[in-house]
Amino acid sequence: MKIAISGKGGVGKTTIMALLAEEFKKSGKDVMVIDADPSPHMAETLGVEHPEEIRPIAEMTKLLVERSGKTEGSPMYNMNPEVNDLLEKFMLSHNGMKLMVLGAIQNGDQGCACPENNVLRRMLTKLLLTKDQVVLLDMEAGVEHLGRGTIAGIDHLLIVVIPSKSSIRTALKVKKLAEDVRIPQISFVGNLIDDDDDKLFLEKGLGVRPVAFFPNSQAIRKAERQEIPIHTLERAADEAPYVLMQALIK
Ligand SMILES: Nc1ncnc2c1ncn2[C@@H]1O[C@H](COP(=O)(O)OP(=O)(O)OP(=O)(O)O)[C@@H](O)[C@H]1O
Ligand SMILES: [Mg+2]
Predict the structure, then answer these.
(1) Contact 155, 187 (CB under 8 A)
(2) CA 109 – ligand 2 centroid, Å
(3) Most CB atoms within 10 A, among 23, 62, 111, 207?
(4) Bigger pLDDT: 38 vs 247
């Protein structure tokens, strides 16, 4: 199963992905987390000790060009880039899961992370997973990248939304775009939830009830400040990661 996450900036995408990764791992799944945010932050959240040592895929410009085929139709264009060996090279094993960082945009003149997105798209579409494997894709805020096809091959898109009007607006926009690019499953996930009013506000604004509600958690906030890996927190988000996982495997 390949799961991606989207939503407005700072709503908790990385936090929720990290908690979900831990939950899937606990359930016996083989978890691979891909950080596709140009300002990657997943390694810190997962408590990787030297995140600066992770070699982002984006740094391998030559490889990227070879494998993604910058100009489709040219002799360099490779329809079937070997994805598995690439994955192996750039995977970091940490706390019983695998982490891969896509990295920042290299070519400033291009204005978009096209080669990286190409590679990611190919990897995600070619990556044949067994039923015990889960790929979790953490992404940047906003909606533009949805149009770039980064998301191809994704089975389920999670849209994180907090109880505010602007967050709901963004979430609905993301949903529309995700439908346009034909992502098979799309679900909303509520975050920073204080009470039932917050849940109701989201349900009304979205027109559908989010599949899981993550509490506004002091433990999570403190962990971030003190650089405590999120998986070491004891039930920081109550049942939410479990509920979300169940919704995904249903
Ligand atoms: N449920 C929660 N309770 C308390 N704090 C939270 C919760 N979820 C996220 N946070 C805090 O909110 C901040 C933003 O979270 P996070 O980095 O996960 O958001 P993001 O959507 O990935 O942001 P970006 O758009 O920058 O990638 C962090 O400081 C995080 O610790
Ligand atoms: Mg993030």
Answers:
(1) no
(2) 24
(3) 23
(4) 247
